[in-house]
Design a protein that fits this description.
By secondary structure, the chain is of the alpha+beta class.
């Protein structure tokens, strides 16, 4: 490693432990309408999140501290076009600390002008309940040495946000980004590979056999998709599968125009498809012009092979 690179890493590491956001307060108290919207979007019918004794889903921790679109656009703007501390953290008060802006500027000056969010981790100490007013502080927890990735070489920056209610620590949110210099090479024109793990391997085995399999809880018969290790209705872990009929309708959709990607040809429609069985799946809507896709449009499942390895379920629309 060159003396120049050594010097840069030392300067970057000097920011560890310094603030990224200070004295932040959530834009809204914890409230039932936001909890309801979250649960509807996630398809989570857990009764703990409704009624007089409702709690907020633990994974909503980040939602209570995000700045929102308008305040993010009115903020400092920052380098690299990020909308907050990594992902938009910053409530009614608080916001990016000068130290965090300096760190991003230093990375920009080193050629790491691109950014991508890589992962987050959360810890929950007690449930949040409607009426709770959240406050938070964020620190720069770590800055990695120079790493080479498929996207390009750069540095991982991890921030830690401590969330409190009335001074009590209720949860911690760690967020990691990669600030990198984009690699100068032509990307391979292949669709991204699905991430297959022990929880969803059976689904992808079904796809290879041209079968769309839906999990069914053997304790309460609730169908669920995407695949999960346990039932979100009763909590049971035993399950079997049913094969989808292939009939469905467009529940919602977006038309993708940007960013361009060599394996795709925008504009194209991506739909949230409600299957006849009642569960929903995200997939391409094919067979009709993108500007003819409509909510409620009937669709029919088909399987398309994109290369020697990849088969994906898509849905062919029908224009009335």
């Amino acid at each position: 490693m060159s003396d120049e690179a050594d010097g840069l890493e030392a300067r970057l590491r000097a920011y560890e432990g310094r603030p990224a956001a200070v004295a932040g307060v959530g834009r809204d108290p914890v409230n039932l309408p936001m909890i309801r919207h979250w649960c509807e979007a996630m398809g989570d019918a857990n009764p703990a999140y409704t009624g007089a004794d409702a709690i907020a889903p633990p994974t909503m921790l980040q939602a209570w501290i995000m700045r929102g679109l308008v305040t993010a656009l009115e903020g400092s703007g920052g380098s690299s076009g990020q909308g907050g501390v990594g992902e938009g953290v910053g409530g009614r008060t608080g916001g990016r600390a000068a130290e965090y802006e300096e760190l991003l500027g230093l990375l920009d000056a080193a050629g790491c002008t691109a950014v991508v969010a890589t992962d987050c981790e959360q810890e929950y100490l007690r449930p949040l309940r409607p009426g709770d007013e959240v406050a938070f502080d964020t620190v720069i927890e770590s800055v990695s040495g120079r790493k080479t990735t498929a996207l390009g070489a750069g540095h991982f920056v991890t921030t830690r946000t401590d969330v409190r209610v009335a001074g009590e620590l209720v949860g911690t949110h760690r967020f990691r980004i990669l600030k990198y210099a984009p690699a100068r090479r032509k990307p391979k024109e292949r669709r991204p590979r699905p991430v297959i793990n022990r929880d969803n391997a059976g689904f992808w085995e079904g796809v290879r056999e041209h079968r769309l399999l839906i999990q069914r809880c053997t304790a309460c018969d609730t169908l669920r998709f995407p695949w999960l290790p346990g039932c979100n209705a009763c909590g049971a872990q035993e399950w079997d599968t049913v094969e989808a009929s292939g009939e469905g309708a467009v529940f919602s959709y977006v038309v993708m125009h940007h960013p361009p990607f060599p394996a795709f040809s925008p504009p194209y429609a991506v739909g949230l498809i409600e299957l006849a069985e009642g569960v929903r799946i995200v997939s391409d809507v094919v067979g009709v012009p993108y500007d003819k896709v409509r909510i409620g449009m009937p669709v029919r499942l088909e399987f398309r092979r994109y290369d020697e390895e990849l088969v994906l379920p898509v849905f062919e629309g029908t224009v009335a």
